[in-house]
Specification:
Helices cover 48% and strands 9% of the residues. The protein has helices at 14-18, 21-30, 47-54, 89-98, 103-106, 110-125, 132-137, 139-148, 156-170, 176-199, 209-218, 224-255, 257-265, 270-280, 312-316, 350-364, and strands spanning 33-36, 41-44, 60-61, 129-131, 287-291, 295-297, 300-302, 307-310, 371-373, 393-396. The chain has a 5-stranded mixed sheet, covered by helices on one side. It has a 3-stranded antiparallel sheet with strand order 4-10-9.
């Protein structure tokens, strides 16, 4: 339960980050299009408005996502990516990798993902106590995306650190931590630039994602700055969503033991439970959009060129769309949830995230009843952009 009055705080307040859903409920009821000085943007929270914005890229541009890039100078922001561009650039960029992330080719990854889950699980079972986030929910997706990019295993810790830096940048704050995160982003830009340079003369016949990008470059379909931006997007999106989804679902199942029992008795429900997890836990809490003309949202005039924070998580808990939205229900019909975005910007890696989550939960669900919490307090990451537990300490019963 929230320990604050929503009218007295902002989205970035620490107490809101610990438990944002009462704040979202207040926004939907009292201020569905609220100006936020802290983010220099309007907060939009109702499902109907969120869906309308996400499905209208001509009016609500993704160019606003570029405000969170490493530098303040537009010339310092690197190449455009599928999440920072609109058609026709978005269409061109998305087509380059969309076939690689369809369900059919991803099925080839399932045996390898099962190997990784089994190996990580065996390590956990060999320990008396462990941090599920550090030891399971982080290394699984980080390893998968590193292998898809064909990056050596020794750099995987850097991958997670760089991903954290990118998320900190998205929170759009100044100060020492922001500057440190920006330095980390410059590191990853340099890393992928060097990797692409090193592979540019010898990529024929390779199947990794960087080779696909290099082939597209040879055909004149993408430039090098856009390739670096693409690789960075895959690095971040390829691990943050799955890590936070699995952490959030673990807590939801332990807090809703009846739903855990349903999954134990009927493991085929895990597929639907993942959709409920994407709705209920909302690993991606929101995205930026920019109004390209003056518009009215929920009776509020949004001036042209104003930025909007589209609160996907608030939409996922809107009771006009989902009955009893604060109840975690693994049998719920979740059609229309915004867990992976909406419209043309529906997450490119959605199938991969679902596959990783399914295999992980098939291992984890039967074992949750054997876990004892090492600490009852949950420390959520402080970001507004993504949400998940920073650590989950457990011991085997």
């Amino acid at each position: 339960m929230a320990s604050y009055h929503p009218a007295t705080v902002d989205l970035l307040a620490p107490e809101v980050r610990r438990d944002p859903y009462p704040y979202f409920a207040w926004l939907r009821a009292e201020a569905p299009a609220l100006w936020s000085p802290a983010l220099n943007a309007f907060l939009v929270s109702r499902y109907e408005d969120v869906a309308a914005i996400m499905r209208d890229p001509a009016t609500f541009s993704s160019i606003a996502m570029r405000r969170s890039a490493p530098g303040r100078d537009p010339a310092d922001r690197g190449g455009h990516s599928v999440i920072t561009s609109d058609p026709p650039e978005h269409t061109r960029l998305r087509r380059i990798l969309q076939d690689e992330f369809r369900m059919r080719p991803l099925r080839e990854l399932e045996p390898r993902i099962r190997e990784l889950v089994a190996a990580l699980g065996a390590r956990l079972e060999g320990e008396r106590a462990f941090d599920l986030v550090r030891d399971f929910t982080i290394p699984l997706p980080v390893t998968v995306i590193a292998e898809l990019l064909d990056i050596e295993q020794a750099r995987q810790e850097d991958f997670k650190r760089w991903s954290d830096c990118l998320i900190k940048i998205l929170n759009d704050r100044e100060g020492p931590e922001w500057l440190q995160a920006r330095a980390g982003v410059y590191e990853v830009i340099a890393f992928f630039g060097a990797e692409l340079d090193a592979r540019s003369a010898n990529f024929a016949g390779r199947r990794d994602i960087l080779a696909v990008l290099l082939a597209a470059e040879a055909e004149g379909r993408i430039d090098r700055r856009e390739m670096v931006a693409y690789a960075i997007l895959l690095l971040t999106g390829g691990n943050e969503t799955t890590t936070n989804l699995l952490g959030g679902m673990t807590l939801a199942l332990l807090e809703h033991r009846d739903q855990l029992a349903l999954l134990e008795d009927e493991p085929t429900l895990i597929v639907n439970a993942i959709e409920e997890g994407l709705r209920y836990c909302s690993p991606v809490q929101g995205v930026y959009r920019r109004a390209m003309r003056e518009v009215a949202i929920a009776g509020v005039t949004i001036p042209a060129q104003s930025d909007i924070v589209v609160l996907l998580a608030a939409a996922n808990h809107d009771d006009t769309k989902f009955a009893a939205p604060e109840r975690f229900d693994v049998r719920r019909h979740t059609g229309g949830h915004a867990g992976f975005g909406m419209g043309i910007h529906h997450c490119l890696g959605a199938h991969l995230g679902r596959l990783e989550a399914r295999v992980a939960l098939e291992w984890l669900v039967p074992r949750l009843v054997r876990l004892a919490r090492g600490c009852e307090a949950v420390h959520w990451n402080p970001n507004w952009f993504v949400r998940g537990p920073e650590r989950l300490d457990f011991a085997w019963r």
